[in-house]
Amino acid sequence: xxxxxxxxxxxxxxxxxxxxxxxxxxxxCYGTQEEIRRELAGxxxxxxxxxxxSRLLRRLGVAKAQNANGRKIYTLVEEQLExxxxxxxxxxxxxxxxxxxxxxxIHTSPGAATVVARMLDRHASPEIMGAVAGNDVxxxxxxxxxxxxxxxxxVIRTLKKAH
Length: 163
Description:
By secondary structure, the protein is an alpha+beta fold. It folds into two domains: about 5-60; about 90-160, Gyrase A, domain 2, CATH 3.30.1360.40. The chain is about 50% helix and about 20% strand. The chain contains seven helices and six strands. The protein has a four-stranded antiparallel sheet. A two-stranded antiparallel ribbon has the order 1-2. The termini are far apart. The model is unreliable at about 5-10 and about 85 (pLDDT under 50).
């Protein structure tokens, strides 16, 4: 069995950090990147920096969401999407949809905007350039401002399909 080259070692190390971060977030509630960094340090990555934690969170698609106690915690968005069931469907999360000449806004229940935005990204429509989520609102940018109405229709179609 040969030794790994430097680049291969870095890939294995990055992959191990990513998997450790995913496991940590799936098992516990963390409100800050510093808490996650400390946990990863104890998980065998003593020199991990906050910027590396930030990069890992971005790669995992982690977002902050409000838990049942009202605390904002880091959560795996994929898990949230998988846990959407008949009692908490996308339809139940969306409160209203509005638009002007340039943007579409989707108002959601608190903590649900990330799930709704991720669902829009997964079911990408050519009309939608991108979606940005806050806590309870998703800003949807049309690919062309002249087609904002078509973007609104695409958003509504996608939301109905998710029901």
